[in-house]
Input
Amino acid sequence: MRAVVYEGGGRIGIQDRPMPVIQDERDAIIQVTLTTICSSDIHIKHGAVPRAVPGVILGHEFVGRVVETGKAVKNVKPGDRVAVNVETFCGECFYCERGFVNNCTDQHGGWALGCRIDGGQAEYARIPFADNGLTRIPDSVSDEQALFTGDLLSTGYWAAKIGEIRPGDTVAVIGAGPTGLCTMMCARLYGPGRIIAIDTDEYRLNAAREQGLADMTLVPGKDDIVKSIQDISDGRGADVVFEVAGAEDTFRLAWETARPNAVVVLVAMYEQNQILPLPSMYGKNLIFKTGGVDGCYCQEVMNLIEAGKLDARFMITHRCGLEEIMDAYDIFEHRREHVIKYAVTPESSHAFSEREAAAVERSRT
Ligand SMILES: [Zn+2]
Ligand SMILES: [Zn+2]
Output
């Protein structure tokens, strides 16, 4: 089968790889029907993810159809359409029992797919702990609607949950990329007074406004961010800040825009160390929560998609086949053509196109 492989040393390429097989009775094999490129894939390519193994098939955000299950798998069966969770987890260890599945102590626990074990930028993929890692897609939900369930929407949902947003709060989201947009979408579920989107990319800010995700947008270098947020919050600052951009200046902006006693959620995956200037922030009594999605809310996310409360389809700005993915990587990495997200279809999945078309048709009516 065809697969996108991290070759190490800043290189990725399409290769022919053997079909995955069941290795454990809790595994499932799925045929990938739609996959995508995530900024974490770019981090791996840059060598900024030390645990990424050269030779691994990339891809941790995808949907497909179950073709085979191990003997112990109960929740899915061959033929089921499924969304794949970015994290694999045993469900039984100390951390899993407490919902901290990102820290699952199993050897395949946490973010392993497309990093330490073969992922879903391929025609087929093996999913360990399939009962925990696969969420069935209802007939009324299309592949494109379900594509971001396991990673981007899970991340936004997790971030919003730990952000402790109260009704009426002023919420600042730094970064209006795919994760930032999903964070805004999920923050909205908690009824904040206003959501402020901050980014240098005005195209993305427009998308945030048009989609009703942001009530106000600010551009660093153009607007005085800290003052603007203080001006609309009786001089206080944001009640909750989500830092989703992952740069040095945005890290600083996160604690500067936060009001005293605010929660600052660092959703971003930084490529460099950041400095906490504790003398400057003394007395602000901030609560920092650091990144690493606990992707254990996929069923809740899928229910919200089915109910029309989460809809991230607008983020799919580009579509291509798996064979064209190298160009897609280039466009995505350098943010050309106002790309937000790609939907990538492996050629072998076209056998399901009629069924997909029917599902998409149903979802529109
Ligand atoms: Zn990702
Ligand atoms: Zn575990």
Observations:
- The mean pLDDT is 94.
